[in-house]
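debug: dumping io for the single-chain case to check the tokenizer round-trip. Nothing else runs in this session.
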Amino acid sequence: MVTIDPEKSILNITEQKKTENRSHLQKGEFDAIFKQAVDSTEDKGVKMESTPFMSQIRPGQFATESLPSTNVVVDRVQQLIDTMGVYQQKLIDSGATLKDIQPLVEEMTFQSESLGATSSAVEGQESLKTIVNQSLTLASMEITKFNSGYYND
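debug: decoded output
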């Protein structure tokens, strides 16, 4: 073990260590030492295993969300319809600017995407499915009209 003397510089200690640990190998001795090391692992019965290929590694398993209940879908439809009602009032209001309406359009976009992701929960409930589809269609049309500049005048 090397002790560090605070009076000596570190450079001297590292240079000293390099020269102390060097063994004087003759030409070809490294080859002999390497082969000896490899042969010694074979004698001990060490078993080498290959690394697995990517196809053998299982993909990560993540918990998936269960389908939302009908109540969640109804709540999201109601939120979207409420937002579209506020949007309609802002369009009627002559004092409202397009900058005032833009956050409502962004909110409708978010709500439409959220509702679209949950619409599979209403399979088999035709009346609710019809309301969901009509709400998504109307919201999509209004979002497209606003973003295309239809209300610029």
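debug: round-trip ok. The mean pLDDT is 77.
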